[in-house]
Amino acid sequence: MTTRRSRFFAAIAAIAVIAIYGSSFILGSPASATTTATDPYGEVRTHLELFGVPAIQVESLVAALDGGESWDVYDTEAKPVDRDRMIINGMDYRIDRFADGSFSAHGVEIPQVLTSGLIQPMGIQACVVTGGTGFKNYDNCQIDGVWGAVVAGATGVDFTIVQGGYDRIRYAGVPFQRCLVGTTGSSPSLVASRMTETASYRAFVRWQGDASTVWGGSWNYWVELRVGRDTYSTVTS
Questions:
Q1: Alpha carbons 100 and 79: distance in angstroms, whole number
Q2: Which residues are registered as beta bridge partners of 175?
Q3: Which is it for the CA torsion 42, 64, 73, 215, positive or negative?
Q4: Which of 142, 180, 204, 163 is nearest to 9 (CA)?
């Protein structure tokens, strides 16, 4: 993929993410409860349910939010009590769960394999993988991190895995962020990168921003894609 085409795909994908995250959709899934004047926390409930938070803890987290009380995920002293993995709307998430039901997570979009020679539909596609002998190109992929009610990351990321060679990131993507009721945040900025793997270090891109909550907590967050040693992964703050 050329740089111009990559940037075009990424820009349109970012618009799609903004449209999704800015409506009653969370992570590409229709909200089962919308935010209204009588229920300002409908979107938060849907978000928590989507990540497998039990109903009783969903309600206690909403009650805490309504009362201006912090969630464990925003407490720097709190430690996760459980860890698991979920596939949510095409994203592969590793999730750290806290005692009150709040959570943090990091994920990368699951790529679709395109078969060479077949006619592909026009328009912007989700993360796809193509390649030949000894290499695979991953195009238009999303990476993100989740910190309670804050979701942020980048879409349109392109990278290449070279079997037995140096892997590389071809395009760092376009940032996005979504802050649900009770939180605010800045759009992430690309703060560090190494676009090509070396003998000693993986290639990586790191997107970073700031977030705060209604109860006065604030923190710096980041999400990072790492590419190297013939594989890829995400990590977050």
A1: 11
A2: 154
A3: positive
A4: 142
CA distance 12 to 193: 23
Q: Which two tokens stand for residue 74?
A: 């925003």
Residue 104's alpha-carbon distances to 17, 131, 149, 182, 200, in angstroms, are 20, 33, 9, 16, 30
Whole-prediction pTM value? 0.83
- Could you give the angle at the alpha carbon of 234 between the alpha carbons of 11 and 219, nearest 5°? 85
Task: Print the domain residue range for 231.
Answer: 3-236
Is-contact 111 129, C-beta < 8 A? Answer: yes
Those residues whose C-beta lies under 8 Å from the C-beta of residue 158, and which sit 6 or more positions away, are 1, 6, 10, 137, 138, 139, 140, 141, 169, 170, 171, 173
What residues contact residue 41 under an 8 Å CB cut-off, 6+ apart?
35, 62, 65, 66, 181
Number of independent structural domains in the chain: 1
Selection from 230, 179, 161, 173 nearest residue 205 by Cα? 173
List, in order, residues 6 or more apart from 103 with CB less than 8 Å away. 51, 53, 73, 95, 96, 97, 146, 148
- Per residue of the chain (237 residues), give pLDDT as tens: 444 344 444 444 443 343 334 333 345 433 334 455 578 999 999 999 999 999 999 999 999 999 999 999 999 899 999 999 999 999 999 999 999 999 999 999 999 987 655 444 444 458 999 998 999 999 999 999 999 999 999 999 999 999 999 999 999 999 999 999 999 999 999 999 999 999 999 999 999 999 999 888 899 999 999 999 999 999 999
